[in-house]
Amino acid sequence: WISDNIEGTNFDARSLNLAYCALDGPSLCKMSQNDMIGVFGPQLGPHLHQSLLKHKAKHGKSVALDFISHIYVFFLLGCLFSGLRTPESTSGESDPEFFSPFRRPTDLVIADILAPRGTHLWEFIRDILIYPEKNHGLLKWEDRREGVFKFLKSEAVAQMWGQKKKNSSMTYEKLSRAMRYYYKRDILERVDGRRLVYKFGKNASGWKLNELPSVM
DNA sequence: ATGCACTTTCCTGTTT
DNA sequence: TAAACAGGAAAGTGCA
Question: Which intervals hold domain ETS (predicted)?
Answer without folding.
Answer: 119-201
